[in-house]
């Protein structure tokens, strides 16, 4: 006779076993990300663990799912790389909770080869959000750009007022080919909060670009040191629409590479939307190469 797994909220005494079970099924890269996600949870009260579920088969854990709460009413789904009816039941439990909590967005990051996970998630109402190319370059690389036609001035991000920050991020994102689905869902405040959440040093390594002809900033450059791997990450670079297609993108990218090099990083990492060929071509001309791909899917609460 078939045995049906039981889905329960993870008891505190089984939490360590559950998290080890969840980590064991992840890739080495995802294990590191999961470890970082769990660090802040050590200081959280018991109520913060109300979104960790396990499936039990004859009293033993055979599956785990965790919905990690994020700022701005968002979340990330952590799912084991496994199949079966118990995994499907765990996904449905997580989906129901996300909808009940009215979260703006709950996303998961998947490798290209995780086709069975994508199929499982689609069956439970999760939608593809963005497909990313992950690129890297030695920090000594430079885009072959001619001298800029105007004088460029970089200013620390913290000199911007909240209103200026909001206006610049809105302008940089306008008509951008990167992550359009995400920009349609999230507000500017959500997006900014997301960048702050990805960098514990923010906005120390963030910069606003000015030119003599404009009293307002015309570009943004958001960098994050990843010192544990001796790399820096380029989280965002962009220009406001009226200053695009003037040959300035290469100079912004070169500034990012130079800053990372000065800090002693070995490589600069970034991710670009598959639907943004102009940006991909810019990075490729600067010596970036693709080392991975990533698919992001999400539930809208």
Automatic annotation (TrEMBL):
Any one GO MF annotation of this record: acyltransferase activity, transferring groups other than amino-acyl groups
Protein name in UniProt: Acetyltransferase (GNAT) family protein
UniProt keyword Hydrolase, yes or no: no
InterPro entries for the chain: Acyl_CoA_acyltransferase, GNAT_dom, YpeA/RimI_acetyltransf
Annotated TM spans: none
Chain ranges of the N-acetyltransferase domain: 158-301
One of the Pfam families matching this protein, by short name: Acetyltransf_1
The organism of origin for this protein: Vreelandella subterranea
UniProt entry keywords in alphabetical sequence: Acyltransferase, Transferase
């Amino acid at each position: 006779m078939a045995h049906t797994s039981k889905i329960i909220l993870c008891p505190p005494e089984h939490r360590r076993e559950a998290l080890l079970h969840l980590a064991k099924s992840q890739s080495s890269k995802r294990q590191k990300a999961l470890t970082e996600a769990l660090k802040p949870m050590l200081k959280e009260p018991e109520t913060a663990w109300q979104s960790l579920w396990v499936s039990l088969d004859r009293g033993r854990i055979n599956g785990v799912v965790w919905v990690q709460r994020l700022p701005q009413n968002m979340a990330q789904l952590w799912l084991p790389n496994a199949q079966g009816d118990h995994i499907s039941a765990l996904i449905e439990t997580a989906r129901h909770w996300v909808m009940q909590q009215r979260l703006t967005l709950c996303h998961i990051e998947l490798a290209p080869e995780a086709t069975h996970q994508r199929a499982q998630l689609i069956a439970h109402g999760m939608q593809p959000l963005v497909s990313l190319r992950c690129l890297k370059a030695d920090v000594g690389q430079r885009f072959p750009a001619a001298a800029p036609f105007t004088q460029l001035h970089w200013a620390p991000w913290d000199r911007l007022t909240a209103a200026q920050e909001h206006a610049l991020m809105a302008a940089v994102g306008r008509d951008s080919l990167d992550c359009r689905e995400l920009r349609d869902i999230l507000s500017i405040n959500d997006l900014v909060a997301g960048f702050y959440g990805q960098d514990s040093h923010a906005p120390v390594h963030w910069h606003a670009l000015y030119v003599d002809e404009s009293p307002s900033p015309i570009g943004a450059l958001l960098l994050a040191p990843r010192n544990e791997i001796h790399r820096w990450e380029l989280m965002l670079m962009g220009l406001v629409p009226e200053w695009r297609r003037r040959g300035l993108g290469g100079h912004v990218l070169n500034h990012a590479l130079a800053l990372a090099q000065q800090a002693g990083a070995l490589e600069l990492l970034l991710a670009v939307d598959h639907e943004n060929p102009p940006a991909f071509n810019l990075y490729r001309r600067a010596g970036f190469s693709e080392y991975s791909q990533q698919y992001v899917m999400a539930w809208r609460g």
